[in-house]
Amino acid sequence: MDNISLDSVYEAVNALNGPDPSRNGAAIKWLEQFQKSIDAWTIADRILNEARSSDACLFAAQTLRNKLLYQMHELPSDSYVALRDSLLSLLSNIETKLGRNVSSILVQICAALSDLYIQVVEWRGFIPQLIALFGVQGNTRNQQIFLNFFRIFPEELYNRRLKIGENRRQEIELEMAAETVQVLNILSQLCSSPDASSPSVTLTNCVNCLASWLLNKQCPTEILAHSPLLHSVIGCLTQNSVASDLHDAATECLVNAFQLINDGDIPPQQIELARILQQGVLHTGEAFRSAVRDEDSDKLINYTRLYAEHCEAFLTQIAKHPGDGFGDLRGLEMLQIVNEYHDYNLVEMSFNVWYRLSEYLYQCDEPDFDELRIAFKPFVEKHILSLCRHCRIDSDSQEMLSERSELAEFRYRAQESVRDVTFIIGSVDLLRLLMEHLNTSTSWDQMEAILFIISSFINNIV
To answer: What is the DSSP letter of 394?
Structure first.
């Protein structure tokens, strides 16, 4: 593309968002070509600084972000600082210039600024600089920028499309880790005095920001364990009437916190966080039952995800020391409470727990295995019996079960899960158990489901 004018870009954006479908397609093609051009860098920056329209600014912000992701090599190194300063200025001024909701534009600018800093390996100390700029209390605009940037930055650090070396990633992880106390304090202050116009939105944004911050593998767990904000997040999941968005954010936050716990022997600096997370999850039972009564599928998915993550985080401890400390078997019991609910999609979320448990037990020496088998056999039996219930075909259906249906796919994955754990019970003992249930079944769909499960391991019996 030669001689691209600023006005031609505005015209194309207007056509893209206009009512005429015949012009939309042509505008899309033209704008896609524009984004690949070398001129897109300067023109997008000009559009953002002019701030004539929200549509044009959003397109320009997306363009800069994509250029930084895919065509950073086009940008001369002596332009890095100028672009950084321009993006910082835009973060501070774009809302004032446009005079309206600019959250989508802010997200793209934050992503672009993150991608720029992460890829310029010579730069240091950007995180504390941004905290100093936007972590100021009492300024609603700065709060919005702070929450957006520190939610997006960790996500970009682990964005697979961003081509950086592991040394640079670790360097930034350590830079973030050093600012954890400051970030937690700011988030706690924002939560304790949220924006009066939309307090629930502010709380949710703070928890989402914390969830992203916990993506950092170097996040100091001993500091996190003593954060009042983490305890508040756990409290959200033990309550019955938390808004869905906040519940989602709190779940994501704890899932990411569990990822900070070493699988295997837990080092001393992680013990306190591990204990807090374990006890927090074990106290969500009543809230889970409330979600069951309300048929709140979103919250049920959150709890199931949390219970599965809890078991995976402590799986080695559960397998090595069942019933003791971090091997508390109530985690498995909570997963099995989920299995009592009618949604087989929730059951499937536990399959990896059973697979990993079976992998550990399979590698045990015979004396250890015999002892552990006694501890886990009742859990495995209950798991398989629950799969028999969930594999039942609708008895009112007049059609054969389609192999491409969701239930058919679940049934095949259920068979795989049964095969994973059969050796813990023993094929003969499992067959005997299922035959007892088969003999007391009163409907064809019950019988069919049990026989289907039996077919997954019957060939193992000699």
So the answer is: P
